[in-house]
Structures are given as structure tokens and as C-alpha cells.
């Protein structure tokens, strides 16, 4: 018998700037700005820059609502279908501080890390590889601080670093599914022990059923 031993050196880390189109309405709705963004499970941090991309929200009647960063159109345009009952947005949120944590933060200025991120995109999704490269160029000019470690361990000290005068926002997108149910519960408890934090969860409906209902 032949037994193959395969050592896994990498775990899934898809990083999709397009998810900012879904996060944006929640961020824009936060009354007290500027915002200090903390992303848990940030991968390379592409979702930490919702203020640096342009958006085209397509309405069912064929019209659209286009939104650009304050300094003009971005090299990345994110298309998103919008429900007519959602409020149309008139500007991107004001973000003055951003940081993230990941078990394995990726660096968009490192060619091996970029190759890994490109590998994680389905072969036929050329538009996503183009978006990844364009978004990486934007964020490379102002790299956010990304900590290495477990989100439960690192979040408390990251929150201590939030500058005064900013609204702390903790968010995650396609991350909590990787946590055990015990760790998910511990995360909810940790977030709820910080009433000053605005929490945005962008996960599958079954990941945090109690949050999906809110
Ligand atoms: C599918 S990726 C999503 C990346 C990004 N949030 C996005 O939406 O594009 C999930 C990320 O969560 C990270 N992750 C998973 N469990 C984690 C944990 N316990 N602590 C910190 N990061 C974690 C992984 O390393 C990976 O980079």
C-alpha cells in the first residue's frame, strides 16, 4: 500500500474588496464619524478601505447610484445590486484609522502573498483577479497595521489603540465560520462587553443566527 502524507502549508484566505459594497451602507449609517475600523480576519486588509473604492449600486429599474471617494473616482469600481427600499448613499464614510488581525496576515506588496491570493480566486473569475490587483495597488500606498494572531486574543488590545474622537467599528466578513461554536460565543461576549463599539457582521445566515435576525 502507498500512503501519501500531505502537509498543508496554507489555509483559505480569499480576500475580496467587493465585500465593501455590502459593508458601505452600514458604515455610512454610523452617525458619529470619523470611524476607526478594526477588521478581524482581515487577510491582506482589502476590506479595510471602503473609503478608497468607487461604487455603482444598480437598481432594479435599470438606473444606478454611483459613489466615489472624496478625492474623486477610484481605480476600483465595485458593482452591487441594491434593493429599492434601501437608502441611497451620498458619500463614503470618513475613516481616519484602520487596523486588522489575522492568523496569517498577507502583504499585498509581497509577490508570494499576492500569488496565494490570486490562487484562491476561481480560474474563470478573471474580473476578480483584476480587481484584486487594482485594489492591492491602492492599499499598498497606505498599508494598515495588521496584527498576527487569534482574533479573540488580539481584539482587546487593538481596541485600546483606537484614537479618541473616533467611533470604533469592529467588523468581519466570511470569518466567523472558521471559529468553533464556543469561540463564536466568546466573540459575541467580547463584543458585547464593549458598548462603545459598533459591530458589523457580514457572515452567512447560519453562522450567527441570533445576529442575522437583528
Ligand atoms: C475567507 S477569509 C476572509 C477575508 C476578508 N475578511 C474578506 O472578506 O475578504 C477568512 C480570514 O479569516 C482568518 N481567520 C480565520 N480564523 C481566524 C482567527 N481565529 N483569528 C484571526 N483570523 C482568523 C483567515 O486567516 C482568513 O484570512
Which structural category do the helix and sheet elements fall into?
A: alpha/beta
Give the termini separation: 54 Å
Uncertain runs: none
Shape: globular
% residues in beta strands = 15-25%
The radius of gyration is: 18 Å
List the helices and strands and how they pair.
Layout lengths: L19 H9 L6 E6 L13 E5 L5 E4 L9 E5 L13 E8 L8 H9 L6 H15 L4 E4 L2 H10 L6 E7 L7 H12 L5 E5 L6 H4 L2
Parallel strand pairs: 1-5, 1-7, 2-4, 5-6, 7-8
Antiparallel strand pairs: 2-3
The site of S-adenosylmethionine has 21 residues, from strand 5.
Characterise this structure:
- The chain contains six helices and eight strands, in the order αβββββααβαβαβα.
- With 214 residues, it is of the alpha/beta class.
- The protein has one domain (17-200).
- A five-stranded parallel β-sheet has the order 6-5-1-7-8, sandwiched between helices. It has a three-stranded mixed β-sheet with strand order 3-2-4, with helices on one face.
- The model has no long low-confidence stretch (mean pLDDT 93).
- The structure holds S-adenosylmethionine.
